[in-house]
Amino acid sequence: MTAIEFNHQLIGLETKLSRFAMSLTSNREEAQDLLQETYLKALSHRDKFEGYSNLKAWAFTIMKNTFINNYRKQQKENTHNDTTKNLYFLNLSRELSPSRPDNEYTTSEITKEINNLSEEFKRPFTMFLNGYKYKEIADKLGLKIGTVKSRIFFTRKKLMENLKDFQ
Hints:
Elements: H1 3-12, H2 14-25, H3 28-44, H4 55-77, H5 88-91, H6 101-115, H7 119-129, H8 134-141, H9 145-162
Helix pairs in contact: 2-3, 2-4, 3-4, 7-9, 8-9
């Protein structure tokens, strides 16, 4: 394919590429920038295009990859690095007050409901909440792992029913 044929076919894709750019960016100016960047890359890498390939698919792939790369670059630019001593800002709590009354009420109600469970359900569930793995719970309580999983599942289900006001 000659350079003139390549350019002519690429320009013929403008409306389709414009629509695709608009669907990716949802902003007319950004879509135009993306279209121009796609044309620039396609023209500068024309030697990598093989004449028997699908030019439309090639151009759309360039546009999609350009959009993804620009998005990733923008995300990196929006990332803030904490350069303070001992990572002060990174370790700063997001919540200003240590505890809110509604959190305390919810925690106490959940704890009360857990304590109301029968021992066969309460013990595996509290162990699970404390960070034990299913296998560790099964070994410690002398149960099969499937039994432990089902008891934890049914305990969750029962707690969600009893505490549906808090969801």
